[in-house]
Amino acid sequence: MTPLRRIYVGLALMAGATLVIAIVGAALVFFSARSTEVSPSKVIATPTSSMASPPKISYPLSNPLPSKMYVEDVLSALGLPVGKVDGDYDVKTQRALCAWRELTYGEPTRALPSDLEAMQIVSTKALAPAANQVVGLNVNIACQTATWVSAAHVVIGVFPVSSGQPGYLSTSVGLWKVEWQVPRWYESILYPEAMMYRPKFFHRGMAIHGSATDALVLPYPASHGCVRMLHADIDRLWDAGFGIGDAVNVYGEWISNTL
Fold it and tell me: Locate the L,D-TPase catalytic domain: which residues (predicted)?
C-alpha cells in the first residue's frame, strides 16, 4: 500500500469513528431525556370566592304556585262560600278560607293563605266536621258560616251567614234547638216591618232566616241578633226537613280586620 493510500484509509477510519461516536452520543442524550421526563402533577381545584358552593335556596312547593283564581275555584268546588271567583282575595274569600281551615285542621281564622296553605287547598279532596261541631247547623261567628252536619257526621253544606252585630245585638253563643218556625214570610215583633223569610227560631226570638234581599247576608256580623241566610239555603233546610228539635250550635268570636 502506497503512503498516499494509507493516508486516505486513515482519514476514512477517523471519519467513521467520529460518526459512530456522534450517533452513540445522540442516542444517550435522547434516552437519558426520556428517563428523566417529569409527568405533570394532578391539579386539585380548591373552592375560592368565585367557585363557592351554590347557596341553599328555598324553592317554592310548586313551580309555579297555584294562582289566586285557581285557589278560589277549588274552594268553590268544595262547596265553600267563596263569592265571585276572580282571583281577588276579598272578605268573601276570607270567609271561605276560614271555613276551609275549620273543616281541615280545626283552626278557623280569616287570614290570607300562605304558599303552603294554597298548595294544601288545591290538594283537598273532601271536608270533614270539626271536633266541636254537632249534628245539625253549626254557626261559626268567626267565619260567618253555617256548617250543616248530617247524622252520619258528613258535611252536607257550608252556608254564608251574617250573625248579630258584636255587643248587645250579638247572636247568643251556645247549643240550642229549633223551637218553632214559620214556613212563609214573617214580620219581626221586635223590629216592625223587618221581614224574615221562613224563619226557624232557636233562642229568645233569635232565628235563622232569609232577609228582604240576599244582599243583606253580608260577610260580617250585621243583624240584630238573628242569623241571616240566603233564601236558597233556607229553602234547602226546609226541603230536607231540618226543623223543630234540630240543633243550632253557635260558637266563636268575630275578630275584625283579619289579614
Answer: 135-251
Q: Cell numbers 232577609 correspond to what residue?
A: 211
Contact 139, 249 (CB under 8 A): yes
Residue 98: its pLDDT value, please?
98
Please tell me the distance from the alpha carbon of residue 115 to that of residue 81, in angstroms, as a whole number: 21
Q: How far is CA 107 from the centre of its chain?
A: 15
Cα(65)–Cα(60) distance, rounded to whole angstroms?
7
H/E element, 4: helix 3-35
Element (H, E) at 97: helix 91-102
The answer on pLDDT for 58 being more than 60 is no
DSSP 28-92: HHHHHHHHTPPPPPPP-----GGGPPPPP----SSSSPPPHHHHHHHHHHTT----S-SS---HH
Q: Taking residues 13-21, what's their average pLDDT?
A: 48
Q: Which residues have C-beta within 8 Å of that of residue 4, sequence separation ≥ 6? A: none
Helix-helix angle 115-122:68-77, to 10 degrees? 40
The full set of domains in the chain, from first to last, is: 61-128 (no CATH), 130-259 (2.40.440.10)
The three cell numbers locating residue 62: 310548586
Backbone angles phi, psi at 251, to 5 degrees: -155, 170
- What per-residue confidence (pLDDT) applies to 191? 87
pLDDT in tens, 141-171: 999 999 999 999 999 999 999 999 999 999 9
C-alpha cell at 37: 421526563
User: Across residues 62-71, what is the average pLDDT?
Assistant: 85
Position 56 scores a pLDDT of: 34
